[in-house]
Amino acid sequence: MNPEPPSFRTALGSHGRRTWLWACVLLAVLRLLLFQAAFPPFSPVDEILHWDTVQKYAIPRLPSGALPAFEEQVLDQYVLYESKEYTESKPPLFHPMSAPEELRLLHVAAQKRLLRKTSNYMAWEPPLYYVGVAGWVRLGALFGIQGIDLFFWARTFGALLYGLLILAAAGFLHEHLPDRGFLAIAVPLLLAVLPQDLYYQISDDVPSALLLVLGFDRLLCLDARGRTRDFLLAGLCFAALLLTKPTNLPTLILPAFFLFPRIWGSLRREGLRADGRDLLFWLALILPVFFWALYSKIAGGEWLGSRHKMEFHGFIPQGPFRILEHPGFSLGGFLFFFAGLFSTFWTGEFWWKGKLLAWAWFDVLLSLSLIALVGLSWTGRSRELPALPPRIARPGRWLILASVAFLIVSSLMLEFPDRPENQPPSLKAPFFRGYRLISASLFPVLLFFADGLDRLADLLARPALRWILLLLLCLALLVSEFWMSSSVFTSPYNWFHLPG
Asked: In three state form, how does the secondary structure of the chain look?
């Protein structure tokens, strides 16, 4: 049985794969840098809050108090450079920076008086991403980058992390699936062209996928011969996931899958004389999270920082009887939730000129292909290809299911206020269905997707079909991204057109 497809020069060979990998990294980074510069400040997905939090850590200043105020320089930038083009269909009348200085100063002073009444509820989010971007911002300042250019520079940190994600994914495939040449080509390419807009902006969702790949890789090394360093690094990776975003909580299913059977077997064989490396893993995971939670409780009044956000948005916990009235228990609600989840997996949540940057028919095609190919991968059906190793497939499946369940349960437990359509969740659409909230699962989803595509070609006995479909899909993703976002490049508020 030969699992290797006979084409694309036997999946490029080892030297060719390295060239291909770096080409994918270069494509992804350049593409992200382009769109990071093209989309103006500040995206409506909380970007001003993330930017202010970055500035606090760059000062440096740890959050303190229930709801910290915005930094003065952030308010200046928001008033002068914020674009209404995300939500308004009419073009801006003029750029505030083009106004006479006296009028501009009056405008800034008036708007800042209003904005000072608003606090940054995001400042108490876990700190790891913000600390990293703050260091990147200070590095940019050393190179002489100032003002609003520093904001665009902060965005580029996401492109750097995304390039590392592709390298980490390729390393994972080389180490744990060395005989699956198609996956080694397809997964980096899919990552390189994925038009996911969360990476265009400053957002604490950005590092999750990278950290998951690194943690998953180390967990696969935790066998009887596993090095102590692997246990330590694995624990730190999952601690980093929790110190990046609370919605990464479902990722803990991976260490539970690998370590609980180890610990149980060790206890049965040796009693309380369990392997100390397991203890090291849990200490590396728990202690950093505990110390941050303790500081958050002492200085901010709560353990995780989520209460501030919920109170600001008007999210109210609802009782068990009200949960049964949730539209998620209806067929329409079920379809609405998954339609949004699948579509935001491919593209994201950006609006432009008052409309979602998406094509409904294209989203339907992509969603159906995602369901079909991931489902085919999960069945393991093929003529010649072996199933993915259980130690990769099983925890990957459980991670995806746990992440989706997390969004569903979170949606059921809260009552949402009446808000505009472009600010979900709301009374009319009471679901957390943005994929960015569970973006840590990006690599396993694309791994299953590519494996399903490989199996489809194998079942149809058409070896070239896998390459044709992969190429057509990636071209469609690239073309759609540039086509849908073409008007963004003419914005007077983006980096290309900002007045001095």
From this structure: CCCCCCCHHHHCHHHHHHHHHHHHHHHHHHHHHHHHHHCCCCCCCCHHHHHHHHHHHHCCCCCCCCCCECCHHHHHHHHHHCCCCCCCCCCCCCCHHHCCHHHHHHHHHHHHHHHCCCECHHHHCCCHHHHHHHHHHHHHHHCCCCHHHHHHHHHHHHHHHHHHHHHHHHHHHHHHCCCCHHHHHHHHHHHHHCCCHHHHCCCCCCCHHHHHHHHHHHHCCCCCCCCHHHHHHHHHHHHHHHCCCHHHHHHHHHHHHHHHHHHHHHHHHHCCCCCHHHHHHHHHHHHHHHHHHHHHHHHHCCCCCHHHHHHHHCCEECCHHHHCCCHHHCHHHHHHHHHHHHHHHHCCCCEECCEECCCHHHHHHHHHHHHHHHHHHHHCCCCCCCCCCHHHHHHHHHHHHHHHHHHHHHHHHEECCCCCCCCCCCCCCCCCCCHHHHHHHHHHHHHHHHHHHHHHHHHCCCHHHHHHHHHHHHHHHHHHHHHHCHHHHHCCCCCCCCCC
The predicted structure's pLDDT at residue 225: 64
Q: Which two tokens stand for residue 292?
A: 């941050």
Are 245 and 203 a contacting pair, CB within 8 Å? no
Cα(45)–Cα(155) distance, integer angstroms: 14
Euclidean distance between CA atoms 210 and 245, whole angstroms? 13
Q: What does residue 415 show for φ and ψ, rounded to 5 degrees?
A: -105, 130
The full set of domain ranges for the chain reads: 11-316+341-490
Give the model confidence (pLDDT) of 285-307 as tens digits.
999 999 999 998 888 777 777 77
Buried b or exposed e, range 312-347, using 16+ CB within 10 angstroms: ebebeebeeeebeebbbeeeebeebbbebbbbbbbb
Better-predicted residue by pLDDT, 270 or 110: 110
- pLDDT tens column, 72-113: 899 989 988 888 889 887 766 677 777 777 777 887 888 888
End-to-end, the C-alpha distance of the chain in Å comes to: 64
174-222: pLDDT as tens digits? 999 998 989 999 999 999 999 999 999 999 999 999 999 999 999 998 8
Reply yes or no on whether the pLDDT at 45 is more than 80: yes
Contacts for 171-176 with beta carbons within 8 Å, 24 or more apart? 171/217, 172/213, 172/216, 172/217, 172/443, 173/447, 174/17, 175/217, 175/220, 176/217, 176/220, 176/389, 176/392
Residue 84's contacts (CB-CB under 8 Å, 6 or more residues apart) are 92
